[in-house]
Design goal:
The complex is a heterodimer of chains A (366) and B (360). Chain A is α+β, with helices and mostly antiparallel strands. Chain A contains nine helices and seven strands; from the N terminus they run αααααβααββαββαββ. Classes of the chains: A alpha+beta (366), B alpha/beta (360).
Chain lengths: 366, 360
């Protein structure tokens, strides 16, 4: 809702800016015409008449100029407001994406937490059971070997303790439980590490960044978004670091990956068969290209021209805000001076390619 | 007797963890583990289970499909969900199929407790049909009055929470279901919620709408039940009792609970009416023509009253002990000042003031 409201607000602002720009142009033209007329009459008429006329004209010009200044002020403030609103919309899009991601990451972390804590509870019980064998063993060690009754009683107690602890089960499963716990904790740690790198504070600055590493992190943290519908294959070439705002580029890759997953989910499939998503990077002259391709439902020709429009979406309510690709366009083309294209994949699916200048955005790009 | 329990997850480590965790139960529980939805469906086809505990998000055959299959193929099995965080749309699909929903991570005591409840509620009832009935219930039919009111409201996209709450809180079956859902461990509430209004605010309109839809689709059971007991009459009586009970409780913290208790205090009748095998219609006829009250006849025939049947189900559905206790008290005014005593007195006084709607 907030996003929809913002979009209306943004559109209103855009209209206002356009109107003001038109007024501004019109007034500039008026002034020009008046000036021309003043200059044009100079050589034909008497000095006084010209003076009188030009004083009158001067007043008009002055009035117009004042109006123009006010208009310009309004224009400047409207522009500032519009760019603020645009920045807010971009950050809302980031927040929406992070919200979805957070739920996915929570799910990813909950699974290992479940089996690690189950394993630890088991290991604690196992330790208690094993420790309970010790008194019986001590009893056996201290038993009088000359007294057959006492000795067999002590032996029986040890056997009973072993039975109670289910030692065979423990022997087989305790090492596995330790292994599982370690794996689970490593999994949690790697998700947390990726999440931290995905949007670390330094990533906001324009600086040389390892694009492949960013992609690997993104694939890790977004796994909940695709793992039930598709397999992701990465083919990351040897590419130089790219001067960019890394967090923004990560966000773009995330958007493309989530879109690919949604496209794969939209294809009716036989049980057991899954979609395929491929992420490839390579160098192309003085640019680095990131390609995200899928064998999903594809983009119908009829809407191909609209996919980068803000708020344009074909996804259901709650699935998409229609801002992923327009945000990607803003980041890649406007902020980095790169290119964002897509084409149909054969026989099915879509390839999106992001091309980024290795030396970063040139002059004149914000 | 060993109970058969099936655990379903697409992560082998989760299954291994559960096997180790519940190792001490191995003498009482025969535990089976299915890796993924398809394996689970195969197991369910091969043998019956008392309890199925399933994950939700799984590739290919997901938990919703597994639970639906269990419901259709093994209607006597309890269906438990053990899932990580899922989206609202997924949750809405699971809610109508699950008896209890647990969230990952879930500790050992919580999981054991949930499985024990699923196995044992109603097990001490001398009439085994009732025990089984209570354990496998997932919905109760609402009254026609409620259906009509909801049909006009729920389908509207802008349906107001207030309006929906107003309708739901007056219907015994819907009240029970909404509080059942919100009090699932999955939602991680520190203490059970006791009123529909709290529950609706907590769940949000999407989930409440999906619950009401699932209850409305249970309308096929309505006519069968309505042949035995008049659902509209039970609702009228329950609302009247609830309103009076609420006024009688001076502690504002308990007033809402008293209202809810009043609404569900005869839900046991709806449960008994669901199973023709129990012959509840005949029992009601005998109470009208003979000298013995319906309570007495229920106790003679089933070994427990409708109130106790209702209380069993409410306890399985995660209702707080105060409401369960007050419903079970069934007009026996309890001494004492504990919440369940205060509420039980208020409900029983209100119940006595009103005409006996069953006798008519």
């Amino acid at each position: 809702l907030a996003i929809a409201e913002e979009s209306t607000e943004l559109n209103q602002l855009r209209n206002e800016v356009a109107t003001l720009r038109r007024n501004d142009q019109a007034q500039k033209r008026t002034i020009q015409v008046l000036m021309d007329r003043v200059e044009g009459r100079f050589d034909e008429e008497s000095g006084i008449a010209v003076l009188q006329r030009s004083v009158a004209l001067e007043r008009i010009v002055q009035k117009r100029t004042e109006e123009l200044a006010t208009t310009n002020e309004r224009l400047a403030s409207a522009l500032a407001q519009a760019s603020r609103a645009e920045a807010e919309a971009a950050s809302a899009q980031r927040l929406a994406a992070i919200g979805t991601l957070a739920a996915g990451v929570a799910h990813e972390i909950n699974t290992p937490v479940q089996f690690v804590s189950d394993s630890l509870a088991f290991l604690r019980e196992a330790a208690t059971d094993v420790l309970e064998i010790i008194p019986a063993v001590r009893g056996l060690l201290g038993a009088d070997r000359e007294d057959p009754d006492a000795f067999s009683r002590a032996t029986a107690e040890v056997e009973e303790a072993l039975e109670r602890a289910d030692v065979d089960y423990l022997d087989e499963n305790v090492p596995r439980a330790f292994e599982r716990s370690q794996e689970g904790l490593e999994r949690v740690a790697s998700i947390v590490r990726s999440l931290k790198e995905f949007s670390h504070p330094g990533g906001k600055e324009l600086s040389p960044a390892d694009i492949n590493r960013g992609i690997r992190n993104t694939v890790t943290i977004a796994s909940n978004e695709y793992k039930y519908v598709a397999d992701v294959e990465t083919d990351l070439g040897s590419i130089p670091n790219v001067v960019c705002h890394q967090n923004d580029i990560n966000q773009v890759v995330l958007n493309l990956l989530v879109n690919a997953a949604h496209a794969c989910a939209a294809v009716p499939r036989e049980p057991g068969s899954r979609g395929a998503i491929r992420i490839r990077t390579f160098q192309d002259g003085d640019a680095v290209v990131i390609e995200v391709s899928d064998d999903g439902i594809g983009i119908p020709k009829a809407i191909a021209s609209r996919v980068f429009e803000p708020f344009f979406t074909t996804k259901g309510v709650g699935k998409g805000t229609g801002q992923g690709l327009s945000h990607a366009w803003m980041v890649v083309v406007e902020r980095h001076g790169g290119a964002l294209r897509f084409q149909a994949n054969e026989p099915r699916g879509t390839v999106f390619s992001v091309s980024l200048p290795i030396r970063g955005p040139g002059e004149g790009v914000r | 007797m060993t109970h058969r329990i099936l655990f379903v997850d697409d992560e082998p480590r989760v299954l291994d963890g559960l096997r180790d965790l519940l190792r001490r139960e191995r003498r009482e529980w025969d535990m089976q583990f299915a890796l993924g939805g398809q394996a689970a469906i195969n197991r369910v086809n091969e043998a019956s289970f008392d309890v199925v505990v399933s994950d939700v998000l799984m590739p290919d055959v997901d938990g919703t499909a597994v639970l639906r299959h269990v419901r259709d193929r093994r209607p006597r099995a309890s269906r438990l969900v053990l899932s990580g965080q899922v989206g609202t749309d997924v949750l809405c699909g699971v809610i109508p199929l699950a008896h209890q929903i647990l969230g990952k991570p879930c500790d050992a005591d919580q999981l054991r407790g949930a499985i024990r409840r699923a196995l044992s509620v109603g097990a001490d009832v001398s009439q085994p049909t009732i025990g089984r009935l209570v354990r496998r219930l997932d919905h109760l039919p609402p009254s026609l009055v409620t259906c009509r009111a909801l049909a006009g409201v729920v389908a509207q996209p802008g349906a107001m929470l207030d309006r929906v709450s107003e309708i739901v809180e007056r219907d015994p079956s819907l009240t029970a279901k909404v509080l059942h859902v919100v009090n699932n461990p999955y939602f991680g509430l520190p203490r059970p919620l006791t009123t529909v209004r709290q529950a609706v605010v907590h769940l949000g309109l999407d989930i409440v709408r999906s619950i009401t839809f699932s209850v409305l689709t249970f309308i096929e059971a309505h006519d069968e039940v309505d042949d035995v007991v008049d659902l509209d009459a039970i609702q009228r009586h329950s609302v009247a009792v609830a309103l009076r009970a609420r006024e009688r409780v001076s502690d504002p913290a308990l007033a809402g609970e008293a209202f809810t208790t009043g609404i569900v205090h005869e839900i046991g009748r709806v449960i008994l009416a669901l199973e023709p095998e129990l012959g509840y219609a005949e029992l009601i006829r005998r109470s009208r023509s003979g000298s013995e009250s319906l309570d007495t006849l229920e106790r003679l025939e089933y070994g427990l009253t409708q109130a106790e049947v209702g209380a069993q189900m409410l306890s399985l559905w995660g209702f707080p002990a105060s409401i369960v206790g007050a419903v079970a008290a069934n007009g026996e005014p309890l001494e004492g000042e504990a919440p369940e005593h205060v509420i039980a007195r208020a409900v029983s006084d209100a119940h006595i003031e009103l005409p006996d709607h069953i006798a008519i």
